[in-house]
Amino acid sequence: MADGPSNEVLLDIHERMVRIRIFEEEAGKLMENGKVPGALHLYVGQEAVAAGVMAHLSDADQITSTHRGHGHVVAKGGQFKEMYAELYGRVTGYCKGMGGSMHISNFDIGILGANGIVCGGPPIAVGAAFSNKYRETDQVAVTFFGDGASNEGAFHEAANMAALYKLPCLFVCENNGFGEYTSQKRHQAIRDVADRAAGYGMPGVIVDGMDVIAVYEAAGEAINRARRGEGPTLLECKTYRFYDHVGVRGMGIDYRSDDEVKEWKQRDPIKLLEDRLAEQDVLSNDDAAAVHERVRSEAMEAIAWADASPYPAVENLLDDVYYNGE
Amino acid sequence: MADGPSNEVLLDIHERMVRIRIFEEEAGKLMENGKVPGALHLYVGQEAVAAGVMAHLSDADQITSTHRGHGHVVAKGGQFKEMYAELYGRVTGYCKGMGGSMHISNFDIGILGANGIVCGGPPIAVGAAFSNKYRETDQVAVTFFGDGASNEGAFHEAANMAALYKLPCLFVCENNGFGEYTSQKRHQAIRDVADRAAGYGMPGVIVDGMDVIAVYEAAGEAINRARRGEGPTLLECKTYRFYDHVGVRGMGIDYRSDDEVKEWKQRDPIKLLEDRLAEQDVLSNDDAAAVHERVRSEAMEAIAWADASPYPAVENLLDDVYYNGE
Amino acid sequence: MAAATDQATREIPYVKAITEGVQQSLHEFPEAFLAGEDVAVAGSVFGIYKGLLAEFGEKRIVDTPISEAGIVGLGVGAAATGLRPILDIMFMDFLGECMDEVANQMAKMRFMFGGKAKLPVTVLMMGGAGMSMAAQHSQSLEAWLCHLPGLKVMMPTTPYDAKGSIIAAVREENPIFVILNKLSLGITGPVPEEPYAIPIGEAIIRREGSDISVVAIGRMVHEALTAAEELAKDGISLEVIDPRTVQPFDTATVIASVQKTHHAMIVHEAVRFAGIGGEIAAQIQEEAFDYLDAPVARLGAPFAPVPYSPPLEKAYMPDAKRIAATARETLGR
Amino acid sequence: MAAATDQATREIPYVKAITEGVQQSLHEFPEAFLAGEDVAVAGSVFGIYKGLLAEFGEKRIVDTPISEAGIVGLGVGAAATGLRPILDIMFMDFLGECMDEVANQMAKMRFMFGGKAKLPVTVLMMGGAGMSMAAQHSQSLEAWLCHLPGLKVMMPTTPYDAKGSIIAAVREENPIFVILNKLSLGITGPVPEEPYAIPIGEAIIRREGSDISVVAIGRMVHEALTAAEELAKDGISLEVIDPRTVQPFDTATVIASVQKTHHAMIVHEAVRFAGIGGEIAAQIQEEAFDYLDAPVARLGAPFAPVPYSPPLEKAYMPDAKRIAATARETLGR
Ligand SMILES: Cc1ncc(C[n+]2csc(CCOP(=O)(O)OP(=O)(O)O)c2C)c(N)n1
Ligand SMILES: Cc1ncc(C[n+]2csc(CCOP(=O)(O)OP(=O)(O)O)c2C)c(N)n1
Ligand SMILES: [Mg+2]
Ligand SMILES: [Mg+2]
Questions:
Q1: Positions of D marked catalytic
Q2: Three-state SS for D56?
Q3: Fold observed for domain D204-331
Q4: Helical H runs in B135-284?
Q5: Residue span of the structural domain in which B118 resides
Q6: Which of A300, B292, C61, C117 has CB 3.0 to 4.6 Å from C40, enough for a Cys bridge?
Q7: Does residue C8 register a pLDDT over 80?
Q8: Ligand closest in space to the Cα of A120
Q9: Strand, coil or helix: what is D78?
């Protein structure tokens, strides 16, 4: 970390993180106020992962996301309006209201789906990486998945194939310590998901997922490696979700201690970054607050826009089941 | 290997290996002569694995087997008559003719199925091991699977659960270098399947699968560990199949060199053991030949018996779809 | 066909009836255990196992990794060696993750190995749409399971049946699926306190009628009853049949009803094409051809994945209104 | 309905027609590739891809690990990013291993994400019994796939159709399954040398007849033709319809036939219960009720896994004899 990222990059990362945080805070409120239906899995606390990785990607690079996907979509360049509209189930949403929170996505900027199926993404990302190699581009495919997802067979098959074919692919495990309400030590006998990398013949890297600069640098190395044709990496980011598994306060299940939550919140990734930016005179606390304010008003505007958008028409239900030649 | 196994054990192991070899040689002939239908995956060359492991197990211990399962069944105590009868599709077979080569099995002696599904066995063995622990017995469940099978998601899920629950379970990977006609280096980027063990938090052990004493000792250690309640082990046995993937000479696919086959045959596990037994004055070459002869005539007798057995009756087809209270 | 359900004064919701069914089964069989994702500490994301961990402990209430194939395999292996597993697969949409274990191992193990294995394993899963859970958390895939020899499949629609199906399933010596319905979790009904089993393979007539036999699958029973109520006002009399078990299917009860009403329709939440409505319609015309005054009608979801947007999801799911319309159409009045 | 197949003098076996269909598709689309277990070096365990590795090289003919979910996922991701994957799943019995990728990803990706994804992916797999491959290598599971909105499913029965279906499938812009039949690999028939596609969703009348419409699925077409030959001797005239595509299903051709013959039966190798025969029977009585002189009959396998023992397997599979008997029974003569 001799040099570290440029100020421009730092500000860009900061912006992405703030955008995620605010998008999610407002989404949580909408849910609590009964404005949006379905299951909402919020990303608050994990912002450093999406932002640190996505800062290296262009629209041409692909990602696959998860049920906890809003953060990835925001960081990859998803717009608030189309995202909130999707949560509202409106036709102006990214998925025309067909997908909702668990599927919010935008193919145009390389997001090959959020996924309601745990570990649905990795095999698809491997397919995209295969395609990148086949088409001889320098695109990279990044798949995000949780500690819980790392126990699905699909992870294993995807990782093995990616390593075998040396695909331009990055496996980002967001280890937030829980799969739903089951702690990591109750779902696997290992502490580090990265330990699995050796079993596929790829490097496994562990990084502090609350430190966006650490994520940024580790992801950069792995992505460059992928672009150079040297194959995939498993990057494990140790992180934490500040809200419950679903929604904000969740279902009142007693599965983690308030102390643990408090401790992790002291390492709020946005606060950590902002302290650093202030210290390094890159962004003052006031300027940071202004960013929050600007993003917040963008969110409020987008919510109003979404709320005013029409629902899809019933007669269009079958339109997108099959492709019928434009 | 200071002491090594007793003479009694050595002779027992030798007997098991010879029984497998001869069962398979005769089965191969039956197939080539059009006497038995379906797909026959023969175990010749891998005898040391089944024999070395099974010497530690009682009828109460469980195994799951594979499409290449005859060797496991013979080594676990399966009788030639019922086995050949099954290959012939006769009602006197272990599966009443319903299963055939890929399913030949005997639940009464703890064989929870051979399996036509690659990696069908490991999750089931984990279930048996769970049951052993639940019932507080000292039974162990052993699952046999190939290098190819280690790429199935089911392996991953089963291994993780076994380690998590510290189940009395042994994962025996028979790495014969190929999944069908695909060599290991073309199906995974690692050389040692045992490298995967660390990713589940279990020990991974590699052993020369042509050296039955090495297999016997490594398996013994792992099985004792399991019986002591210390959890599963992944034991990788480097071995080779002398016949083709299916049948004896197979389908004429050019996927491995004659030289490679010849080289491995020089390490024929039965010959290796017999040399050692002769050297150590445990079993002379003549006595070994007598064993072969005895087993061969048992096989011929069993084949005649099987061939004379009746087919199952069509009207009994539905009898065993559901259990209907004896 | 079974008689109407026992009366019991106590009314509890479907969600609690499930808990009680599992709880009493665990008491009945020391070799029974519950395993699945978040069944223990969380008591299930549907709240259906609340309190069981405290009562039975970690040995018998087992949280698993997110490994559906592993879970079903665990159940198969445990059942084959003397235990009586109750497995939870959360959303039935996750069937795809473990379909090999279900179809190639669980369903075939007994047959394939010559009748040696006995597999008393129960699988619980939550099906159905209506909660804006979108395409991957709302499906009705009972047709897949019904097509597999070796399995049985129940779809309880009332709190009484939820408890009674689970107890029946756990007592059953063959692999059996109990498909629960997430939108029904809150509906209440009489449920006796003591353990009881509803008979596997027996339909029940939820409402007698004379004009048309409505075979309603799963939650559609309630919609059909509402439609019946509505149409009764116009003098149209619906007989509402709840098969309760879809594999094996109680053809006799349905045929007897059709012989009386001369009209039939089937309604299910699953998409129509290759849903079990086709099977039932085919059976009705096979066995009651001469009694039918009109084609057997089928109502199911349109041929699309389940949409998220509430108005679309509502339009997607068959309901009382469409049942009534189809009944009218079939009757020509 | 399509016209009878083009005549071509060259006769080749089904196995070679498959190879040629894949080969010509790979020529047609540089973005097409073939991936699956043992498709490259081995040219498939069924010999259907012999020579393709030599012709197209490792980039386009890709051996995969034994990872069915991974293979389908690879296809989905590759298709979504501009390629045109041809995936091989070897035995269709292995569908369970990848059913989540098929049902929850491949089938729903376009719909779920608002019509953004286009997924031109073809899946080839071998179905059917008759070779003593036992319960896990002999199944006919087309009903599972047909129940999934977003997928199309073809079942070619002749060498001509095998080639034409594969080419049609690879040209198709939606996910499509081509279910091949292992027992048909050796049957020969006329196959033009140039590339051609058979129309997706169009049935073909394999033999015209006047007494009963026999909808025969997959290999059963040949058994039905044999039965027709046999019954013709007794003056009974079977019209044999080969749907060729089972999703979408060409209802119109079937209905037109039934309107002519007034009798119908469906035959498939899959077990009867919840097989697509139920769907087809239901459709026929829905749309041609007034034309039917007898119930629509269904013939399928008994409700058991496929047995290994040759005489039992033979008894298990519907054949010409049983088709003839069922036709006679339906016709009452
Ligand atoms: C195949 C499948 N199994 C189970 C679920 C239910 N489920 C949704 S989220 C979740 C936990 C996922 O844990 P993890 O991968 O660690 O992600 P996190 O929620 O912590 O972000 C589970 C079990 C699902 N959606 N899909
Ligand atoms: C799920 C599944 N996929 C594919 C196959 C086809 N198949 C049968 S044996 C085999 C190779 C297995 O390789 P390995 O596990 O190394 O065992 P080996 O044959 O070498 O003993 C394959 C791919 C199958 N039977 N089941
Ligand atoms: Mg997690
Ligand atoms: Mg192998």
A1: 137
A2: helix
A3: Rossmann fold (3.40.50)
A4: 153-164, 212-227, 258-265, 269-279
A5: 7-306
A6: C61
A7: no
A8: 1
A9: helix
